[in-house]
Prior knowledge:
Elements: H1 3-11, H2 18-26, H3 30-45, E1 48-52, E2 54-58, H4 86-98, E3 103-107, H5 116-129, E4 134-137, H6 140-150, H7 154-164, E5 168-169, H8 179-185, H9 192-204, E6 208-215, H10 221-238, E7 241-248, H11 264-277, E8 283-287, H12 288-291, H13 293-299, E9 306-308, H14 316-319, H15 330-339, E10 343-346
Parallel strand pairs: 1-9, 1-10, 2-3, 3-4, 5-6, 6-7, 7-8, 8-9
Bound molecules: ligand V47.
Cofactor: [4Fe-4S] cluster
Protein name: Aminodeoxyfutalosine synthase
Family: Belongs to the radical SAM superfamily. MqnE family.
Amino acid sequence: MSLPEIAAKVDAGMRLGEAEAGFLLQCPDLLAVGRLAALANHRMHGNRVYFNVNRHINYTNLCVNRCAFCAFRRDEGDVDGYSLDLEEVAARAAAAAAAGATEVHVVGGLHPHLPLEFYEEMLRTIHKSGPGLHIKAFTAVELAHFATVAQLPLEEVIDRLRAAGLQSLPGGGAEIFAERARLQLCPEKISGDRWLEVMGMVHRSGLRSNATMLFGHLETPAERIGHMARLRALQDETGGFQAFVALPFQDRATRLDGVRGPGGVDILKTLAVARLFLDNIPHIKAYWVMLGVKLAQVSLAFGVNDLDGTVVEEQIGHRAGAVSPQALSREGLVRLIRKAGRIPVERDSLYRELKREPDAC
Ligand code: V47
């Protein structure tokens, strides 16, 4: 196996195998891997880079799981544990709509007691307070937890949340599927198999989702590729993933003592390999909160075609030491993309292009 052989396959639009992706991930020539990814990306999206105007709402940090990488979670009774009430959620949704957001991204810890009715009510509340906002909410891990607490089949939980206003799912909670690493990172979390099973059900119910990978901690390069291979296989079946989001591990204030997050070269190469290997997932998203704004901009030359988003309020990455700002403005995102020599395209949550009046926020 050699770089020119792999480049020829990419040129011909052929699917790469796991060994080839592994080779690229270990390849010392970052720019060569990046160039291939940029080629694959250009074929799919030309010079266009998507971004969206959104707001994150983290409704609780109470969580029954104790994932070693997570600096956000708290136990019931901790002084800085919180759960937003519906009025507060309504206020944040209304503020998002007033600020020109098209989407709210709503996730939380696995709350020990809240009943399914709370989540249904929360969705209805958001819909009422911010009519027109697309509600992207709840990871596969949260859905599985709601089903356990309610003692209901997952299909019923998905149907009820959909009826209450759920429109798509973010990709969180996937972490790394490999059991070896997962057992050290998050032994109480649903398994990788279950995460994929839940997402399969979500897609079959007609909802779209994203997929994430938390990387740069205890996993091996082969486990990283194995994670992407499982996403690609599910996507071949369902076609329900819209975007892949690679989340570099933020290493402050977590329980993974002494484990340092990935450097810039590793991050860029991982995004490039994702673009090349995940040939059936349309969008590779850079989440600037975890990458840092400048590296997120550079990643646009390494196969990335989507920047999330204005965000407004972020806790999961910042509690773990992310040094990025809390929010970016729409203008800031547009400028960042233009300065990278690309064409900014504001999208909605289903990747349809939005046209705004020039003076809109
Ligand atoms: O599920 C937790 C990860 C995720 C850390 O789908 C950490 O559009 C790095 O999933 N270092 C939440 N990562 C964020 C997420 C997300 C973000 C933006 C867009 C989308 C999308 C999804 O953050 C968690 C977990 O995998 N995480 N702790 C940490 N120390």
